[in-house]
Sequence to fold (489 residues):
Amino acid sequence: MTYCKQTCLFTTRVGDFISPLPPVVDMDSPGQAVVEQMRQEGAVRSLVRGPDGHLIGVFSASDLLRWTPCQGEPALPVGQLMTPIARPAAVDLPLFRAVTLMRQQSLEALPVVDAQGRPLGVLVLSSLLEPLLGGQLSLAATIAQDQTPADLHRARQAQFELAAVLLEQHAPPPDILAVLSRLNDEIYRCILAQAMAEMAAQGWGQPPVPFAVVVTGSGGRCESLLGPDQDNGFILQDYPDALCESVNDYFYELAARMTQRLDAVGIRLCSGYMMATNPSWRKRLSEWQAQLLGWLRKPSLASTTLLAIWVDFRCVSGDYRLAEVLRDFATNHIPQHYGFLRELELLQREHDVAVTPLRTFKCERLPDQGGRRKVDIKRKGLLPLMEGVRILALRDGIGALETMVRLTALQERGTLKAELADAVQDAYIFMTGLLLRQQLQDHSAGRHPGAYVAPEALSRRDRQRLNESLRTVIRLRGMVHMEFTGELF
Fold:
């Protein structure tokens, strides 16, 4: 999925911005010889490697100024003239982390390496990059400081300010949700790495088998809002039954530390216990495959509900291949089980939409807010919209998870007509934007970010758009019902 320029700092990786690889020279190469090589190759900088072959610095035009007084010493090694670096950037490092690192060390350029440490190019913090990043750099620095629990908590809180900045910059709301999701991914990775290092130091050793940490639900779809809870699990590489006890002990301990620390920094524990601490969400790959087939072959209210929660899983850390294998397995098998899809459609049809046939809002009174009548825009707007798009994508074997990407794929396949697809997209964008603004208001008022919007507090135009959006959800639901039953109503 392509995101807008306002969010690229938080949604892209270093590899999306690297410049071509300049000359790579040894640290004991004579400075004058390196300058001559740069002149011949038309390069403005060189990368410098140490005795072990790892990159240790950058020699650029700014370094030439320091070298000029030493013109009488042409053999002066470039290792004494370069700008040293703490470490190069991995090609898959999030851009905001690399930019923060460069600003902290006053670096104009940072070498980029692949997973094996081989040089690929450089990331240049130039006049072309700075305007793209806008006023988000200070927020990036705050979010990137995640070495302690307090740092991680501040990083979570900074998401509120970031969301407000992005809304002011007119970033599309789905892109903002993607930013929040990616930042939560980074929190997961940091907490997991810290927990594993701590366990190793305490004698637990390294993970006994490769594993993938996955998030599900809105986090899996990259659609996290500002008050997320935890829906996560572990996919473990298959291992012999004889190792079951020791493997389970390690991963339960890891899951417990991970979920508690996530809760402490502001990603709340799941009230339904759908987390990796639950053995039902912590299994070998083959067990997950068998479980999925069991859910599909014998659909019931319980199994359909569980699979509806799990099916949008996405890997955030660990062995991504395990998640990819399970994703392909699910994508290929679900369309073959019409009975399950029919049960899923029946389950989703029970979820109400907050608009009446007379085009008035279905409001609820909230006792903790003075009895004001409000619309649950998430549970009775966005949820049925997402469910309608998802069931069509599952039936058509579409592997994408994001609602917007699924919509595009469904339109391209002809499943959704262009007019309805555009209307659903507009409804999704409007309601996510409305919900983000409401959550920011809740946060400012000292409340947990919620999902209730008071229609009378909206402008006349926004009330009209919300009404139109909810009626579009009704249209989508009717189309889905007809697809699975042939019934018009």
Observations:
- The two ends are 35 Å apart (CA to CA).
